[in-house]
Amino acid sequence: MINHEVRTYKSSESLAREDQLAWKIAEVASDDVAVETDVQDMVINRVIDNAAVAAASVRRGAPVHAREQAQGHPMKPGASVFGLSLDETISPEWAAWANGVAVRELDFHDTFLAKEYSHPGDNIPAVLAVAQHKGISGADVVRGLATGYEIQVDLVKGICLHEHKIDHVAHLGPSAAAGIGTLLNLPTEVIYQAVQQALHVTTATRQSRKGEISTWKAHAPAFAGKMAVEAVDRAMRGEGAPSPIYEGEDGFIAWILSGPEARYTVPLPGTGEAKRAIMDTYTKEHSAEYQAQALIDLARRMGRQIDDFSTIRRVTIHTSHHTHYVIGTGANDPQKMDPKASRETLDHSIMYMFTVALEDQAWHHEKSYAPERAGRPETVELWHKVETREDPEWTRRYHSTDPDEMAFGGRVEIEFEDGTTQVDEIAVADAHPNGARPFVRENYVNKFRTLAEGIVSEQEQNRFLDLAENLASLGSDDVRALGFAVEGLEHSGSKGIF
């Protein structure tokens, strides 16, 4: 890996195109290196993972509306949309939109956390939609996804967005554009322009993840993927972009990030170096914000040792800065303590999630968020006894680059009315590569079958899995069939413009 220093340049300063971050990203994308076997296998895992969470959400409001919007843009050859017949094909940018919302709706797919947060699986809908429309082979889909993951992870390692209240999808637009560039074997110049365009149009504030969190949280990455498809299309036609987008005097670093004096270091593979960043990422066993994964596992473990939850006086979660201030009591966000809050808000309240997992010793992507579950009087009472505190050591481990030290959990102290305490801690989720039960192919397949049960027929499940597990050897016709249909899908009856 090569560490690239990135800073603002005045317009009067000389900054060669080849020295710009967007160009260096484009060079990585256009570098035709072989995909290593373990990376290929992990790409397949994540394609299965995305389909699993999309199946579980296919009848929820946001995915239904996104799918209906997409149906207003039919195209041949086009791309498939989760839930629809494979014969009903959609313009690729709208297919990326609909599938992106379905994948993101339940906050249940893969994650990577470093200086910024990300869900790298958000690259898959855009890359796959373009592949289906353009008749691309499975081997090239794997190459494109390896690039998408690489660029997003590398940007996340080098550039923090959330400290400036910028949503993490600002890294997704460039990564998806780069992944599509690899998929289509585009020249560096074209990818360079597409990356810049994609960043320019996908930068937004983090209010989508604050206060009363709406379904836009699911739409935001889908929008970034849609914009990436459109950016590549424009760049292929010869259209340019604001440049230099990162380093310009009025650019991303100068006015949206830390200002003209700031320095960022972004690691990128050198020429001929394999793209392996997907191996640094991890998926979710539970449908919840990633910082909740380990603490849900800990709550399930601790709950099995408690006979009477009404005897709890206080629960204190000692954890990282991010967990405390984003999903903990440090957010000073009353909605996180409100039993009538939206599902999107509850899955950003560790106080709620820890309470329910403690009481139930389980976590379910629907039942654990149901209004009747959130509104139980005894749950609400216990929920309001939970608080988080930042612990410098957990913050340090959260930001560690050492895989053996990196931690996204915390230490929990439960104090009972009789003065006794129960204390336990967890560093990473059970499903994490360093966890108690790391996810392997069998777990991804089981996740798909579990979430698709009662929604996707067994025959259709088998057909999809057979294609997905052989992705690298698929021809273009089989890539076009890489989706699933759901019988009996109904329209919502909502009316819009399309």
Protein architecture, described:
- Residues 286-471 form the MmgE/PrpD C-terminal domain.
- It is an enzyme of class 4 (lyase).
- This is 2-methylcitrate dehydratase.
- This protein is of the alpha+beta class and 498 residues long.
- The protein folds into two domains: 2-280, 2-methylcitrate dehydratase PrpD; 290-426, 2-methylcitrate dehydratase PrpD (60s Ribosomal Protein L30, Chain: A, 2-Layer Sandwich).
- 44% of the residues lie in helices and 10% in strands.
- It contains 20 helices and nine strands.
- It has a four-stranded mixed sheet. A two-stranded antiparallel sheet has the order 1-5. Strands 3-4 form a two-stranded antiparallel sheet.
- Strand 3 (112-113) and strand 4 (117-118) form a beta hairpin.
- Helix 5 runs parallel beside helix 7 and helix 5 (123-134) packs across helix 9 (216-236).
Q: Could you tell me the CATH topology label of the largest domain.
A: 2-methylcitrate dehydratase PrpD
Percent range for β-strand residues? 5-15%
Number of helices: 20
**Class of secondary structure makeup:** alpha+beta
In the CATH scheme, the class of the largest domain would be Mainly Alpha
The end-to-end span amounts to 46 Å
Integer count of domains: 2
CATH architecture level-2 label of the largest domain: Orthogonal Bundle
CATH superfamily placement of the largest domain: 2-methylcitrate dehydratase PrpD
Name the assembly state.
single chain
Element string (H = helix, E = strand): EHHHEHEEHHHHHHEHEHHHHHEHEEHHH
Overall helicity? 40-55%
On the 0-100 scale, what is the average pLDDT?
96
How many strands in all? 9
Which outline best applies?
Answer: globular
Largest sheet: 4 strands, mixed
Strand order of the largest sheet: 7-6-8-9
Organism: Brevibacterium jeotgali
Subunit structure: Monomer.
Domain MmgE/PrpD C-terminal: 286-471
EC number: 4.2.1.79
